[in-house]
Specification:
Helices cover 51% and strands 12% of the residues. By secondary structure, it is α+β, with helices and mostly antiparallel strands. Strand 8 and strand 9 form a beta hairpin. The model has no long low-confidence stretch (mean pLDDT 88).
Length: 474
C-alpha cells in the first residue's frame, strides 16, 4: 500500500498496483486517474472493492499501454470504452473519457467518448463520485465539491439532476441506495427531479434495478433508502407493494400503520443478524427483504368486521404469492425467491403458541416446514413484534424463547432437520409388494404424518403400522 500525501485523510492509502498503472500510462504518454467510488472511499476511511480508472487513451491505446505489464486483459466492455485488466490479485477497469445518454425509447445507453477529465467528471452521477486522483502525481481533482458534500452528508449531482437522470435513469435508484449505504441526505432539487422523472426508470432493465435494490436493502440504513423510493414514486415502479401498505391505514386509526410497521420490522431484523460465523451473517438480503415484504398481502385481504375490527385473513399466503411474483419480475434467482416467499408465508405460524401451546407434532411441523430457513424465521418472527405494550411484547418474547428451547430439545432427540418417514419408498414397495405408483405416495404420506404426530418408532413397529394401514385401504 502507498500512503497519500498531506491533504488527504490521515492514514489514507492506495494499493501499489494503482501507482504502477499510473506510471505505465505516463510512460505511454497518456493521462490516467483513479475515479469515482475508490476516491470517495478514501475520504470515508473505507477500502473500495473496485478500482476504476479513466483516461484520455482509446481502448486500443489502453491495450497497447498495458501489454507486457498486465497478466491479462479483456475487452468485453470495449463498446463502452472499458478495458478490464488483471495484475496479480487485482482486477482493474480502465475507461476512456466518455459521456453517455439514454434514448427515451431504448434501454441501452449511446456512448460518446470525451476529450477531457473535466468532461468525464461532469457526466457522473453524484458529486461524491465525481472526484478523481491523477496518477502518478496524486493530484485530487474535485470540481463539483464532492469532499464538501461528503462532509455535509448531502447527495447532489454535478450537472442538474434532470440532466444526470436523463443520461441514466438508474441513477435515481442509486440516489436511494446511497441514502441507505452512506447515510447521505438527498438534496431537495435531486428529490424533486426523482419525483418528476420516476417513470423514466421503466426503461431500465430489471436486472440493473435488482442489483441496485439488493445494495440498498443491504446498506447500513435500508429504511432511509426505502423511504426515499416511496417518497419520490420510484417504489411505485420497482416495489409497488410497499407504498400500497399505506392504503391499509384508515381515518379512524383502528389498526397500526402497516408501512411504518414493515420498516420497523426490517430494522429489527437487521439487529438480529449475526457475525460472519453465525447462522445469519450480516448483511442478509433474504431476511431483510422478507421482513420488508412480510405484510404485503394485507391490502388485498383487509376486511372491516362488524363492531369496528379490521382483519387480514390469509395475508401471509397472499403475501407470499405477491412476493414471488414481484421477485420474478425483478429477475431474482430461484433460490432467493423461494427463501423470501417461504418466510413471508410462515411469518404468522408462531402466533397463538403462547396461548394454546403446541404439541410435539406441531413443533416438528414448524421446523420441517421452515427447513433451511429456520434461523431466518426465528429472527423474522421476533422482529415482527413492534407493539408498545411492554407486557404483550415480553409475553411474546417469552413464548418464542420457550418454542426455541423445545425445538432445541427435539432436535437433540430426533434430528428434526432431517425428518423422514419411518420407511422410504423402496422399503414400502418391498414390504407391500407393490410397483411404483400413487399407492406408494399415499403410504409415504401416511408414514410421514405418523412420524410428525408421534415421533420416531422402531423399524418393526413401522412395518406393522404400514401393513395395518394397507389392510384398511379400499
Amino acid at each position: 500500500m502507498v500512503s497519500l500525501p498531506q491533504g488527504f485523510p490521515t492514514g489514507a492509502e492506495i494499493p501499489d498496483v494503482v501507482v504502477e498503472l499510473g506510471e505505465v500510462f505516463a510512460r505511454a504518454g497518456h493521462d490516467l486517474s483513479l475515479v469515482g467510488g475508490p476516491v470517495r472511499d478514501l475520504f470515508l476511511g473505507r477500502v473500495s472493492p473496485d478500482l476504476d480508472f479513466t483516461t484520455d487513451a482509446t481502448p486500443d491505446q489502453i491495450i497497447a499501454a498495458v501489454r507486457g505489464w498486465a497478466d491479462a486483459h479483456w475487452d468485453i466492455g470495449r463498446a463502452f470504452g472499458t478495458i478490464g485488466i488483471r495484475r496479480g490479485g487485482h482486477t482493474l477497469e480502465v475507461t476512456t473519457y466518455r459521456s453517455e445518454a439514454y434514448d427515451p425509447a431504448s434501454r441501452k445507453p449511446t456512448v460518446q467518448f470525451g476529450e477531457s477529465l473535466a468532461e468525464d467528471l461532469v457526466r457522473r452521477d453524484f458529486t461524491v463520485n465525481s472526484m478523481a486522483l491523477r496518477l502518478p502525481s496524486f493530484e485530487l481533482v474535485d470540481p463539483h465539491g464532492g469532499v464538501r458534500d461528503l462532509a455535509s452528508g448531502v447527495l447532489r449531482t454535478p450537472a442538474t439532476a434532470q440532466e444526470s437522470f436523463s443520461d441514466d435513469p438508474l441513477r435515481m435508484m442509486r440516489a436511494a441506495r446511497f441514502a441507505s449505504q452512506l447515510g447521505l441526505q438527498v438534496a431537495e432539487p435531486v428529490l424533486e427531479a426523482m419525483t418528476d422523472m420516476a417513470d423514466r426508470l421503466s426503461i431500465v432493465s430489471a436486472e440493473r434495478i435488482q442489483a441496485e435494490l439488493v445494495k440498498l436493502i443491504c446498506g447500513k440504513h435500508p429504511r432511509a433508502g426505502i423511504d426515499t423510493m416511496v417518497e419520490t414514486g420510484l417504489a411505485d415502479i420497482v416495489l409497488p407493494e410497499i407504498p400500497a401498505l399505506k392504503l391499509t391505514d384508515d381515518e379512524h386509526r383502528r389498526h397500526k400503520d402497516v408501512y411504518q410497521h414493515s420498516l420497523q420490522v426490517m430494522e429489527q431484523a437487521v439487529e438480529l443478524e449475526t457475525g460472519p460465523d453465525g447462522p445469519v451473517p450480516q448483511p442478509d438480503f433474504v431476511l431483510r427483504f422478507a421482513a420488508l415484504m412480510h405484510d404485503i398481502g394485507k391490502p388485498k385481504t383487509r376486511r372491516f368486521e362488524p363492531g369496528g375490527g379490521v382483519s387480514f385473513r390469509h395475508h401471509d399466503v397472499v403475501g407470499a404469492k405477491l412476493a414471488r411474483k414481484r421477485m420474478q419480475a425483478l429477475k431474482f434467482d430461484k433460490e432467493s425467491i423461494r427463501a423470501v416467499s417461504q418466510l413471508v408465508e410462515l411469518h404468522m405460524r408462531f402466533y397463538g403458541y403462547g396461548d394454546q401451546g403446541w404439541t410435539d407434532s406441531a413443533v416438528r411441523r414448524y421446523v420441517t416446514d421452515a427447513g433451511d430457513q429456520l434461523e431466518r424465521l426465528h429472527r423474522l418472527t421476533r422482529s415482527d413484534v413492534t407493539t408498545r405494550n411492554r407486557k404483550k411484547s415480553a409475553r411474546l418474547a417469552h413464548a418464542y424463547d420457550d418454542l426455541e428451547a423445545r425445538i432445541s430439545e427435539l432436535q437433540q432427540d430426533e434430528e428434526l432437520a432431517k425428518i423422514r418417514p419411518h420407511l422410504n419408498g423402496e422399503q414400502i414397495m418391498e414390504i407391500l409388494d407393490i410397483p411404483p405408483g400413487p399407492q406408494v405416495g399415499k403410504a409415504y404420506k401416511f408414514l410421514l404424518d405418523h412420524r410428525m404426530e408421534n415421533g420416531p418408532v422402531a423399524h418393526d413397529s413401522a412395518v406393522a403400522l404400514l401393513k395395518q394401514w394397507a389392510a384398511e385401504q379400499p
